[in-house]
């Protein structure tokens, strides 16, 4: 009896109206939607994309929706409620894989018009329509919700129009419906940035009508049906002026300037296309919907969009590396992470792991280092919009450990001490005897081969490299470094761990510099050579920025730290058989004097308030500067492929994009090399070799026959 009472009082995970629980997918005529009416004749329509854990808008899902809406038109319900049957959110947007199946612009326009007819049918339905949103409503998912009369959001919901990140703008009506719902400038900001809008801000913008707890969803739906919910209405003072062309032109001018500073239109045409669409047609919604389709279809054919869609799938391929290999037996659960070293990297890694739900102990011999790390984690929580209670939970999971007691309790011990082989051996000598059975010993080394690190270990099979990039709380890529004595279980655990902390795992072999530092160092070394020749730092950075890099190499070197750059360059010079230029004395003197870059306030630039102080006017860099910077990086990437430091060129491209920011719209360094042509790359390297030295000697991999490339 008591059990029945508790069962009756227990809160269901989600409110599904007449459905007692989330229905199971069926193989019947309707595979992506479930429809049922309650006693008040309110129709509940659950989105449940077949054969996947996540809802995306695909052609078959929209076709089924069209059939459901036709059925409802013929027998109109009191109201229609649309929500997701998936646990992880409302809808993540369009099925991007279908973009690749469109052969030309005309075909894209045809498919988009078909989709528009379906969502317009929802918008025209002659009964109240209510979208109930939990989790994420992104892209096409949000556009579907915008077609409803009301939007009810469960606490924790997020909203975004991220199409701009694919070189596109919204294509299912949001360019018209979003500015009609919320202040037009706010709507354009959402679409131009692609950033997430969290639940509270969504309510204040008027994007949603009510923000409720899950247990109140049924009551909120009933209130809408009974007419007790006032529609969120934007102020006429924010919308009315933009019905006229002059205010739109003035706002568009400012938008263009802001967008161009982040995404130059010659590389990223979508922001300009969106601004022009709104500026020219916002006074005629029907025409703007037609123009939206044409503009979207045009952008879809650009190399920028095709390469950014490629980057999306590179991300998915890297995500897949975190899935446990089928031939690995059940792996023990990782619950407790112990980090040794609370410096910039170790503290950030510990904080990020705590943010992702792990119990983390953090050891350092200096209490002030741990205190500083805890303070940074509190700031990180604030930047992630965590509530005070959620922040307290994160900080409770981060355990200061001055006694290093976490060594014997942790499932994974991660060493993040400075790049000194003897120091790391000392750490391992203390750590290994105290590790519990099955625990993993990981190193965050950025360059030391694991064959060196394992030399004094009793159980080298449990050692793995888990190499984060600075700053660890922002950089998405993590190299998982293998060596020939690491067990399959250790490597699988490491890859899974990287996925559990919402990072992208790039499996690489133990080799000097691994992949990213091996490829990035020649780029930075050539930067030093150019500086040594008297080329202005600002001019060098401009060349890289014009190519599409997120920051110039001089600024990047300061961000990485000149001491780190010097250490990695010295290591590669010692361990690789390729020609490396000598480091100039002035750079070594800077490091010796403590001028290390942004972290010390002075390096190649002087830094103030976290920004490099750059001159406005300098002499332009020499004509061959771009190739002198980029081709050594490509040469190192080719060598890494030839040596099998990384498995294939797609993983390499993804790793370089997400670790270094290599111009995403170019699709990755090897994709860029294929487009230029291997023969042309080798010829250009030989020309640079003749003028500047043997460091430009083409890798033998460029002589290999180029194979047709398969999209990831």
Automatic annotation (TrEMBL):
<dbReference type="InterPro" id="IPR006180">
    <property type="entry name" value="3-OHacyl-CoA_DH_CS"/>
</dbReference>
<feature type="compositionally biased region" description="Basic and acidic residues">
    <location>
        <begin position="687"/>
        <end position="697"/>
    </location>
</feature>
<dbReference type="InterPro" id="IPR006176">
    <property type="entry name" value="3-OHacyl-CoA_DH_NAD-bd"/>
</dbReference>
<dbReference type="InterPro" id="IPR029045">
    <property type="entry name" value="ClpP/crotonase-like_dom_sf"/>
</dbReference>
<keyword id="KW-0276">Fatty acid metabolism</keyword>
<keyword id="KW-0442">Lipid degradation</keyword>
<keyword id="KW-0560">Oxidoreductase</keyword>
<keyword id="KW-0511">Multifunctional enzyme</keyword>
<dbReference type="InterPro" id="IPR006108">
    <property type="entry name" value="3HC_DH_C"/>
</dbReference>
<dbReference type="InterPro" id="IPR001753">
    <property type="entry name" value="Enoyl-CoA_hydra/iso"/>
</dbReference>
<keyword id="KW-0520">NAD</keyword>
<feature type="region of interest" description="Disordered">
    <location>
        <begin position="687"/>
        <end position="712"/>
    </location>
</feature>
<keyword id="KW-0456">Lyase</keyword>
<dbReference type="InterPro" id="IPR008927">
    <property type="entry name" value="6-PGluconate_DH-like_C_sf"/>
</dbReference>
<dbReference type="GO" id="GO:0006635">
    <property type="term" value="P:fatty acid beta-oxidation"/>
</dbReference>
<dbReference type="Pfam" id="PF00378">
    <property type="entry name" value="ECH_1"/>
</dbReference>
<feature type="domain" description="3-hydroxyacyl-CoA dehydrogenase NAD binding">
    <location>
        <begin position="337"/>
        <end position="506"/>
    </location>
</feature>
<dbReference type="GO" id="GO:0016509">
    <property type="term" value="F:long-chain (3S)-3-hydroxyacyl-CoA dehydrogenase (NAD+) activity"/>
</dbReference>
<comment type="similarity">
    <text>In the central section; belongs to the 3-hydroxyacyl-CoA dehydrogenase family.</text>
</comment>
<feature type="domain" description="3-hydroxyacyl-CoA dehydrogenase C-terminal">
    <location>
        <begin position="513"/>
        <end position="607"/>
    </location>
</feature>
<dbReference type="GO" id="GO:0070403">
    <property type="term" value="F:NAD+ binding"/>
</dbReference>
<comment type="pathway">
    <text>Lipid metabolism; fatty acid beta-oxidation.</text>
</comment>
<comment type="similarity">
    <text>In the N-terminal section; belongs to the enoyl-CoA hydratase/isomerase family.</text>
</comment>
<dbReference type="Pfam" id="PF02737">
    <property type="entry name" value="3HCDH_N"/>
</dbReference>
<dbReference type="InterPro" id="IPR018376">
    <property type="entry name" value="Enoyl-CoA_hyd/isom_CS"/>
</dbReference>
<dbReference type="Pfam" id="PF00725">
    <property type="entry name" value="3HCDH"/>
</dbReference>
<dbReference type="InterPro" id="IPR036291">
    <property type="entry name" value="NAD(P)-bd_dom_sf"/>
</dbReference>
<dbReference type="GO" id="GO:0004300">
    <property type="term" value="F:enoyl-CoA hydratase activity"/>
</dbReference>
<dbReference type="InterPro" id="IPR050136">
    <property type="entry name" value="FA_oxidation_alpha_subunit"/>
</dbReference>
<protein>
    <recommendedName>
        <fullName>enoyl-CoA hydratase</fullName>
        <ecNumber>4.2.1.17</ecNumber>
    </recommendedName>
</protein>
<keyword id="KW-0443">Lipid metabolism</keyword>
